[in-house]
Amino acid sequence: MNHFDQDRHSALQAKQEAQRIAFGPFVFQASKALRDLGVLRAIEAAGDDGLALEEIVERVGLSTYAVRVLAEAGLGIGSLVLKQDRFVLSKLGWYLLNDPMTQVNMDFTHDVNYKGLFHLQESLVEGRPAGLKEIAPGSRTVYEALATLPGHIRESWFRFDHYYSDNSFQSVLPLIFSEPVASILDVGANTGKWAIACANHAPDVRVTMCDLPGQLAQARVHVDARGFGDRVAEHPIDILRPELPLPGGHDVIWMSQFLDCFSEDEIVMVLEKAARVMTPRTRLYIMETYWDRQRFENAAFCLQQTSLYFTCIANGNSQMYHSSVLHRCIERAGLAVAEEVDGVGISHTVTKVVKRQQDAACAA
Amino acid sequence: MNHFDQDRHSALQAKQEAQRIAFGPFVFQASKALRDLGVLRAIEAAGDDGLALEEIVERVGLSTYAVRVLAEAGLGIGSLVLKQDRFVLSKLGWYLLNDPMTQVNMDFTHDVNYKGLFHLQESLVEGRPAGLKEIAPGSRTVYEALATLPGHIRESWFRFDHYYSDNSFQSVLPLIFSEPVASILDVGANTGKWAIACANHAPDVRVTMCDLPGQLAQARVHVDARGFGDRVAEHPIDILRPELPLPGGHDVIWMSQFLDCFSEDEIVMVLEKAARVMTPRTRLYIMETYWDRQRFENAAFCLQQTSLYFTCIANGNSQMYHSSVLHRCIERAGLAVAEEVDGVGISHTVTKVVKRQQDAACAA
User: Fold this and answer.
1) A85 and A185 co-located in one domain
2) Backbone phi, then psi, for B256, in 5-degree steps?
3) Which chain B residues are within 8 Å of A83, Cβ to Cβ?
């Protein structure tokens, strides 16, 4: 799907949009302040009548000056409307205040990315996440720093990560379990959410979680708390160390929002590790968000911008990929796409991958 | 003029715009990187044919990965268009690359404001420019730090400051000199641009520049370089010290983009200082940019966002005002508006202020 084959602005609109971009960091921080300092909430509560400036001041306990610069910024941003000297919440203001996706995106941008994005050009030129030092000095990737990030930053990271995958898990479980599944290898187990979802969905299935040791320790706590400890095993692994194999013997290998954390060459290496333990019957399911597979342009936009989080903060070399890049990696690893379903959950694609026919024949 | 009395979005548009805001810092930094790293320029040079990804890589000397994440971000932003796998510059891309106003705004945002805006909420709550420490640690206001800011930051500050006033000077000179003027008091002389413009415009006029000593030293260099040293005098003053008067005896007092640097109470104090040295014949001209006097909504938008620069970086208590606020200050200082002209230069209003009739009568 190409949402991007047309110039969408007139010359006048383009000039206006250029200024909105040039002042984008102002717009972002003003919008967040309007939300966090209670201004939008107070105005929402006043309904269609809205509030005069001094009425907002009384309700939020800031100075007249502070409320005035914020509320006036809100007019230009479009989150507030001014009717007979009274500020009224617009639809945009409502979304900034109440929409969970907007909240998750905004907090992720501010807490995890804002400071680091200042170093975007350095990251691009040097091929390393030069912005990471702003939240995790001394770390090479965000993944090794995750467990020790300051609480509010870690929370914004996980809320962003989970917001997009949680909705997809329920839709994808019937797909995975449409064939008999005795055991699943969960590569990139994260907090154990997928392992728990599987154990909950199928009373007999066994899951092996693969991840870095620190991450597995956290996942273990969640799994045990849900009472699935006896059916969920662990396999600690630094997947990027070429000499460390994946464990074999599973019917299904699962990689959800995992491969986007790696460069193309690394993805091929990970897929080759999977290929080495796959039989002709093994199904590898890859769940990813591809910007070219989005029904809505806005979803593609969010993914394209999120790529720069990988550039600047996460690892310096991965992204939210175009599906053709992943397909090329699958091919290079000696695997083949058997089936692909778009539109899973909010924005996911699930790809069922198997050994290539001739390779499978050789192994048999 | 109220550009802001209507909700401008449908629900769907509002949700989309909310995500553009939530990812605004990504959009800003990606746009700046696309500009600064030569990607937009290379694509522009290819005209309507555009460039394939690998062709951009060859031309700009970045990795395929770096060009890909940037160019794909550009698609969502709308600065690039994708036609048959070739990237083409859009009108928005053209403005981001070539429009001087966009360049000035973007550099001002990045160099002066970006890091500091992280501290916007702190600034609003505490009434001080909490973001200033990011570019001038230890300074209370940006004005006292101006002369010692790092070169590229100072340059972006002055380019922003001058971009908007330079065009206005030529339009406003005939207005000021429509009556006989022997001497002008230039309050807030900045780099001496106005003094030079006046000396250049009227061969006999004498100008007294008022500003902080450090600023006057720089202004003096510029004035002397233009050969106007004998007609331009100096009066060093920290205008915020209540006990320090302005010098008297001038036909015209000039304050250009000066009062927006102060809080309402401070503005009244400054205007009272002017009032004390004004006779019934003295004209005080105030040139300011008021967001409510803009013909174009986009100009109002830029001013409303710029207010947050004052909140967060400059001094913590001033802004780009609504004209009614300035009018109230003029009234409180015992002065009166005699005449007002909107639409001067890019976005200025010139207000001719005189002593109020009864006050003038008392003084006479």
Assistant:
1) no
2) -110, 125
3) 5
Contacts of A134 in chain B (CB under 8 A): none
Q: Tell the burial category of A49 from Cβ atoms under 10 Å away from its Cβ (0-12, 13-18, 19+).
A: exposed
Q: Are residues B182 and B46 in the same domain?
A: no
Q: Enter the tokens of residue B285.
A: 């001209």
Q: Does B1 touch chain A (CB under 8 A)?
A: no
> pLDDT class for B346, splitting at 50, 70, 90?
confident
**How many CB atoms are located within 10 Å of the residue A87 CB?**
28
- Give the mean pLDDT of B156-177: 89
Out of A55, A71, A98, a domain closes at A98
| Lowest pLDDT segment from A163-167, B7-11, B63-67 | A163-167
Report the chain B residue with the minimal C-alpha distance to residue A120: B29
Instruction: List the single residue in A99, A301, A311 with the smallest CB-CB distance to B76.
Output: A301
> How confident is residue A359, by pLDDT bands cut at 50, 70 and 90?
low
**CATH value at residue A336:** 3.40.50.150
A346 lies in some domain = yes
- Interface check B77 vs A, CB under 8 A: yes
Using an 8 Å Cβ cutoff, are A107 and A157 in contact?
no
CA of A265: which chain B residue's CA is closest? Answer: B65
The answer to the question of residue A2 being in a domain is no
Nearest by CB to residue B31, choosing from A5, A21, A33, is A21
CB proximity B324 to A under 8 Å? no
Is the model's pLDDT at B363 over the cut of 70? no
Q: Let me know: does B83 contact B138? Beta carbons within 8 Å.
A: no
Instruction: Give the distance from CA A18 to its chain's centroid.
Output: 27
Tell me the residue range of the domain where B93 lies. 11-98
Residue A214 shares a structural domain with residue A309: yes
Whether A201 has a pLDDT exceeding 60, the answer reads yes
Q: Give the pLDDT confidence of A233-250 residue by residue, as tens digits.
A: 999 999 999 999 999 999
pLDDT in tens, B182-225: 999 999 998 899 999 999 999 999 999 999 898 899 999 999 99
Q: How is residue B166 written in tokens?
A: 């330079």
Whether residue B149 sits in one domain with residue B54: no
Q: Do residues A200 and A281 both lie within one domain?
A: yes
CB hemisphere CA count around B84 (13 angstroms): 3
Q: Is A83 on the interface with B (CB under 8 A)?
A: yes
The span from the CA of B304 to the CA of B324, in Å, is 15
B252 and B189 within one domain: yes
**A92–B17: do the CB atoms touch at under 8 Å?**
yes
Q: Per residue in B269-284, pLDDT tens?
A: 999 999 999 999 999 9
Q: Which candidate from A26, A37, A127 shows the least CB-CB separation from B121? A: A37
Inter-axis angle of helices B24-36 and A11-22, nearest 10 = 110
Number of domains in chain A: 2
Mutate to test the interface with A, among B63, B82, B86, B91 (most CBs of A within 10 A): B91
Q: What is the CATH number of the domain that holds B73?
A: 1.10.10.10
| Percent of chain A residues past pLDDT 70, beyond the cut | 98
| A206, A323: one domain | yes
Q: How far is A37 from chain B (nearest CA, A)?
A: 8
Domain end call among A74, A98, A122? A98
pLDDT tens readout for residues B301-320: 999 999 999 999 999 999 99
Domain co-membership, B185 together with B38 = no
Say yes or no for a CB contact (<8 Å) between B127 and A65.
yes
